[in-house]
Design goal:
Elements lengths: L1 E7 L9 E8 L2 E8 L5 E7 L2 H12 L6 E3 L14
Antiparallel strand pairs: 1-2, 1-5, 2-3, 3-4
């Protein structure tokens, strides 16, 4: 599965942080909405094409939060500390 995009609401802390991920695997597109950071609770949406998935992303990003797009890390790339 390849992560295409990642958005973050710019807030720190388990109660405030929200993330949205757009991923693709063959011809299936997945959107993950996560509340609470890495240890948080996720909701998943599965789509058969990119247009439907992007529409879900637009709906999830709508609101008062200031969303920031983060660059996905290429698979196999080392972490900033040099660990993979």
């Amino acid at each position: 599965m390849e992560q295409r995009k990642h958005w973050w609401n710019g807030k720190w802390g388990r109660l405030a942080r929200r993330d949205v991920f757009l991923r693709v695997d063959a011809d299936h597109w997945y959107v993950e909405q996560r509340a609470g950071g890495a240890e948080g609770v996720s909701r998943f949406y599965e789509h058969t094409g990119p247009d439907e998935a992007e529409e879900t992303v637009r709906a999830l990003l709508d609101g008062t939060d200031t969303w920031r797009e983060l660059s996905p890390r290429p698979s196999g790339a080392p972490t900033p500390s040099g660990d993979s």
